[in-house]
Amino acid sequence: MTETIPDLALLPVLRVPDECACYKKDAGKILLGAFGPRAKSWSMAGIHESFVFDAFPPHFDRFEPILKATINRLPILADAGIHTFFSGPESFTPDDAYNSGPAPEFPNVWIAAGFNSVGIQSAGGAGIAQAQWMEDGEAPFDLGDMDIARIQPFQRNRRYLRERATETLGLLYADHWPFRQKATARGVRRSPFHAQLDAMGAVFCELAGWERANWFAFPGEAREYSWDWGPQNRFANAAHEHALIRGGAGFYDMSSFGKLRIEGRDDEAFLNRV
Question: Residue 208: CB partners within 8 Å, gap ≥ 6?
Fold first, then answer.
């Protein structure tokens, strides 16, 4: 928060994702909010119960690159003194999605949490969706990405969280490319066929910690994603694979798929009915 700026005109709220910054006028001052593209992990040994709405020591070395970009964007900041500098903690889910809906294995317990620093702007939509879900007994539209059951026990691992949280904060404010893959905390779950698929040129995606072959690079082609809003760099690879399967045969590694165990006196009759 800057010092008071005389004759400050009415300004729109401005958000510049490429510069990790958000600006707004506030009582004659400029309020600048910033998120670094790479977060710094904290509290890996736990949060002391006395830490309530508290602040961190200022980390001007981490803030300086963002501040330089904001002064270039809004030159008036170069001469405005800093009234308040606040650096505090935030919490993020491993995939940047909410935890919203009925709690697994706890009848009539509902959760609305993990809003990744956008809780206020998301509250209206999340609230009406959950209210309709409670009233009707089913989600009003596809909320699978928010399903609490997607969270896996291994995601409590502290090394996993330390790596992943540093990435997810920055990605929340980056372009949300279709099918974008996380780069950190990978290789948690690998199927028995992982090495063979890797040797065949597989480029992997992650689902619930599983490494799945998403597409296969052609010989000599870089095995990496190039994000785009239109057809992405793997488009021709996927088309080639489709043609091979249509004209011949294919192999699917389904190790990452969920399994249902059915047992009991009427298990055979139940499965036959299904």
Answer: 150, 152, 189, 256
- The structure tokens listed for 219 are 């010989």
**Is 94 inside a domain boundary?**
no
> Tell me: the pLDDT tens digits for 140-152?
999 988 999 888 8
Judge whether 213 lies within some domain.
Answer: yes
Among residues 120, 139, 172, which one ends one of the domains?
Answer: 172
In terms of domains, do 22 and 60 share one?
yes
Identify the CA nearest to 75 among candidates 84, 83, 67: 67
Q: Both 139 and 166 in a single domain?
A: yes
Q: CB of 23 within 8 A of CB of 31?
A: yes
Which range of residues forms the domain containing residue 190? 186-274
Laid out side by side, the sheet with 21-26 consists of: 14-16, 21-26, 29-34
- Rounded CA-CA distance 181/36 in Å is 19
Question: Is the Cβ–Cβ distance between 158 and 71 less than 8 Å?
Answer: no
71 closest CA partner among 147, 9, 16: 16
Give yes or no: residues 252 and 209 share one domain. Answer: yes
| Coil, helix or strand at residue 122 | helix
Q: Are 89 and 46 in contact (CB under 8 A)?
A: no
Question: Residue 105 — very low, low, confident or very high, per pLDDT cuts 50/70/90?
Answer: confident
